[in-house]
UniProtKB/TrEMBL annotation, chains A, B:
CDD domains the record matches: HTH_LacI (cd01392), PBP1_LacI-like (cd06273)
Lineage start: Bacteria, Pseudomonadati, Pseudomonadota, Alphaproteobacteria, Hyphomicrobiales
Organism this protein belongs to: Roseibium album
Annotated HTH lacI-type domain residues: 13-67
Top-level taxon in the UniProt lineage: Bacteria
Name of the protein in its database record: Degradation activator
PANTHER family, sorted: LACI-RELATED TRANSCRIPTIONAL REPRESSOR, TRANSCRIPTIONAL REGULATORY PROTEIN
Record GO terms (molecular function): DNA-binding transcription factor activity; transcription cis-regulatory region binding
InterPro entries cross-referenced by the UniProt entry: HTH_LacI (IPR000843), LacI/GalR-like_sensor (IPR046335), Lambda_DNA-bd_dom_sf (IPR010982), Peripla_BP_I (IPR028082)
The keyword Transcription regulation is annotated on this UniProt entry: yes
Coiled-coil annotated residue ranges, if any: none
Keywords attached to this entry: DNA-binding, Transcription, Transcription regulation
């Protein structure tokens, strides 16, 4: 098959080169690499010295196919900026490491087409299993993974009705809980700054959570003032200014994550608005940024580290032939200083 | 060779399965995948439909070896937390994408042993080229990459005397420029919070830059009060408190990066120290965090985006058989509000 043709015009050392250098058969070299306990210490040393000297790397792709494992795990996250996914992925990696696995991460810029390409690249490059963010993708992607028998764990989401393995949390319920607190503080005109909801199920669920709470409190959920943008401090700043120009002006702005909320805080400070005296602002995630914000941020705490750790354990279980259970982790509200009572009407 | 044995007990579709499903020879399937212009549109459609239906992926590893390219590029960064490397890597990825390449990133937790493992994994998994951070690693790693003909670009550093391709900046000179400003403001007792310098050439160079400036200003560089820790807001906070307990107490604390500096700011606020009235604090990097810190941070601005972009261009050039030049990018001082005059002696 021409797919296995030896590369021409390169001098990447082959197994045969190692055999010649070590003065042994290729079968012996192969045995040293695959079953070192079946050769003598002396032979092993001679062969491994030759391996080192020539810079030979066994073709793990083919070998792993035979063994069924490469010990490489892939993760595709929407962005490496803003540290939104950083802590969870770090914990995921630490747990994998303890299981002798190496993590390779790709970042899709929140683009489904790129994510699909990256899933193929990671699979072709031999990833044993994948961590992905959210549920929303072309069903063909799930079929592809199923056909190739690549276990995937979906994180940052939890839906008991889904067929797909997940380790995450309920975005809608988490945001609803925070929205209930906002409403209890007397806020009736509420703004929301969110990531684009069409391609991001986490963002969509969080907005729905706010609407759920409004509905239960007897407010019209369609009156929620929504600004869609991309996650960044700068974009949070711009969106907050737009919301402050609306009439009636929102007395509370709930942000889809902490990064947007910190941008909103920055804009509020520039607009000489007191937080929370004039406007309340909330976040989501509880990344480190939330606690060092100019006004420490009231936000939803997500157990990122445990999510990453449990996701790794679920994939390890799946790779060992078990059927791991979905895990839904509880979130909590982290009370700091940006949520307060709605200002009296004459103060608005 | 047993390395190429067909996996047993799995039903990953093979080229032969596609041939059977499409009713053509394996040679035709192979031609469709490798030289689609050599088959008719009709045949191509029949075969590619079978490929999709079965979820077949050609063995790109072997194919790419023959072609010499996989269009996969690897990057190994010390950490994904704290967004230190995020912006540069994002720009690196965007530039690669425009060249049809996919980026896979590994994170080494600042550990050389893990980085070596990850270099091997990425190489074995078919990375065409690598981006690495800093110069400092076992010479064997460079030998390994040279033998395997994997171009590597070293970033976040610049040393005209090095043989290795680099796209980065001069950490020592950048920090020296900032230290000169600190000294011009009358500070004589200076503290420094840095990452561990033994395994981190960027951190070491930044500390050396402060000492260079002290020496030129007639101060004894050995009097620099150095706290080594790992990059995190929490660790910056702890280290700052240690420095504030020293006698004489530093009137300026220069931090190895913005993350540590934001931790120092948090501690200063807890200690009721005015910034910069009582103590000046400086950072390094100019990540987004610096501008939203409780007191906006005076820091060294690093052109992260351009560095990532130029690093990708350098690798593309190397892969196309050219010998790209090293690039040293200028840094600049970003003046905000945390650097001021040293307090009068009676105020200390």
């Amino acid at each position: 098959m021409e797919d296995n043709a030896k590369p021409s015009g390169t001098d990447v050392p082959t197994l045969a080169d190692v055999a010649v250098a070590a003065g042994v058969s290729t079968a012996t070299v192969s045995r040293c690499l695959n079953s070192p306990d079946r050769v003598t210490q002396k032979t092993l040393k001679i062969v491994m010295d030759a391996v080192d000297r020539l810079g030979y790397s066994p073709n793990y792709s083919a070998r792993a196919l035979a063994a069924g494992r490469t010990n490489t795990i892939g993760a595709i996250i929407p962005t490496m900026e803003n540290a939104i996914f950083a802590r969870g992925i770090q914990a995921f990696q630490e747990e994998l490491q303890q299981n002798g696995c190496t993590l390779l991460v790709a970042s899709s810029s929140y683009r489904q087409d790129l994510e699909e390409e990256q899933i193929k690249t990671l699979t072709v490059r031999g990833a044993d299993a994948l961590l992905l963010i959210g549920y929303q993708r072309d069903p063909k992607v799930y079929e592809f993974l199923a056909k190739r028998k690549i276990p995937a764990v979906l994180t940052w989401v939890s839906d008991p009705d889904s067929d797909h393995l997940s380790v995450g949390f309920n975005n809608r319920q988490a945001m609803k809980s925070l929205a209930e607190l906002v409403l209890e503080n007397g806020h009736k005109v509420i703004g929301c700054i969110t990531a684009e909801t069409s391609a991001n199920d986490r963002a969509r669920d969080r907005v729905s959570g706010i609407r759920d709470a409004m509905k239960e409190a007897g407010l019209d959920p369609s009156e929620l003032l929504v600004e869609e943008t991309q996650y960044s401090i700068e974009n949070g700043d711009v969106a907050f200014r737009k919301l402050m120009a609306a009439r009636p002006r929102p007395t509370a702005v709930m942000c889809g994550n902490d990064v947007l909320a910190v941008g909103a805080l920055r804009a509020a400070s520039a607009l000489k608005l007191e937080i929370p005296g004039d406007v309340s602002i909330t976040g989501f995630d509880d990344i480190e940024l939330a606690s060092v914000a100019p006004v420490p941020l009231t936000t939803v705490h997500v157990p990122h580290r445990r999510m990453g750790q449990f996701a790794a354990q679920a994939l390890m279980a799946a790779l060992n032939g078990n059927a791991p259970d979905n895990i839904e982790l509880p979130t909590s509200i982290c009370f700091r200083e940006t949520l307060g009572k709605a200002p009296a009407p004459n103060k608005r």
